[in-house]
Specification:
The structure is a homodimer of 197-residue chains.
Chain A (H helix, E strand, L loop, with lengths): L13 H21 L5 H8 L3 H7 L3 H8 L1 H16 L4 H16 L5 H8 L8 H20 L9 H17 L7 H12 L6
Helix pairs in contact in A: 1-2, 1-4, 5-6, 5-8, 6-9, 6-10, 7-9, 8-9, 9-10
Chain A binds a DNA duplex (19 and 19 nucleotides) through helix 1, helix 2 and helix 3.
DNA sequence: ACCTGAACACCGTTCAAGT
DNA sequence: ACCTGAACACCGTTCAAGT
């Protein structure tokens, strides 16, 4: 069901492929320790390639972020599948799904803001991931709706906008991932028919 | 009641004061047309001062933003006073207050993100404005609580975090200010006892 | 077809020299 | 006490020269 969600890419020459992989691997490490705004120059340096090479493969920072987050979409899909099929009460299932998203998008500092910004920008390389995200959320919300627990008129895109906003707040201000919970609780209260379950 | 909320500042020499004012005035214009991340170098150039002068007055970009937003706090206080004293049904009063905030923080592109980031960072020059903001929100929420319309355990700071997150989403993605409404509606549904009013 | 690395433009920051 | 502007470090981006 979830083969790599990546776009089909024409095969690269051996050395180009090696450089491509090295860059992505290096970027992943750099993004993890310095955030998604880490210096591209230094990524190139650490990867042992010239800046032009990085540029050829990734014309924009977002393109690189997109490549680094390639597996991310798979995780999102897995998490949403699990939440949608969950036997847990609607509130717990939804809460878990939101929490996992905040956690997942939080591993790269600054990534939440990029995702949030790309949410309505089809020109962004990350836009595709946002579509996947909204689709996944739709799936989870539908499962809750089937149980009659969702308020009328709740839109998956709007919900994802708010939740990515919350993820960004958590990421940008120094607060911990646990501090997302009270905010998510407000959203849950806002979209569920009965706050109790 | 609302004299300028600014901090007391020791008087500057005449020329220094003139430069200070010119810089703030220029920055305000630049921020308005190019956003809160506009080049400080060009602001200095347009203001007719050396970069060192801008730096002396505003050691950090946030300090400059803070100065540019000096009147902003007064508007926030005025809006919250009006909302707290409003005869409108709780939902309308709250909704108007949130909307005005999103609108106000949206006049400088990128400002919402700065406010959001400073919300829990006492070291930031903008932190003081966030405190004012949370205080103002507290005031409005209390007035709603007095009418028995607010759910138990709703915290003014949490609410402000979410709303500033929404303001940031609206600002960063290309969507219009009107598109904040459906998201704010979810928050309202989440913090009010009875969604109807 | 792909890579290198010098070159460029821009930006924030510092500081010695001036008044 | 305050300002100027040259100087520096850094960063993203381009492109001619190489293989």
């Amino acid at each position: 069901m979830s083969t790599t969600t990546g776009v089909e890419r024409k095969p690269l020459r051996a050395d180009a492929q090696r450089n491509y992989d090295k860059i992505v691997e290096t970027a992943r490490a750099m993004f993890r320790e310095r955030g998604a705004d880490a210096s591209l120059d230094e990524i190139a340096k650490r990867a042992g390639v010239g800046p032009g090479t990085l540029y050829r493969h990734f014309p924009t920072r977002e393109a690189l972020i997109d490549a680094v987050m390639r597996d991310w979409a798979d995780r999102i899909n897995a998490d949403s599948d699990e939440a949608a099929a969950s036997e847990l009460p609607p509130r717990e299932a939804l809460s878990g799904w939101f929490s996992k998203f905040v956690e997942n998008v939080g591993i790269y500092h600054g990534a939440a803001a990029k995702v949030m910004a790309a949410m309505d920008d089809p020109a962004s390389p990350i836009y595709r991931k946002c579509q996947i995200l909204v689709g996944a959320n739709q799936k989870v919300l539908d499962s809750v709706r089937d149980k009659g627990a969702l308020r009328d008129g709740v839109d998956a895109r709007e919900v994802m906008r708010i939740v990515s906003g919350i993820a960004t707040v958590v990421d940008q201000s120094g607060i911990g991932a646990d501090d997302a919970e009270p905010m998510l609780a407000i959203v849950l209260d806002g979209i569920l028919v009965d706050p109790s379950d």
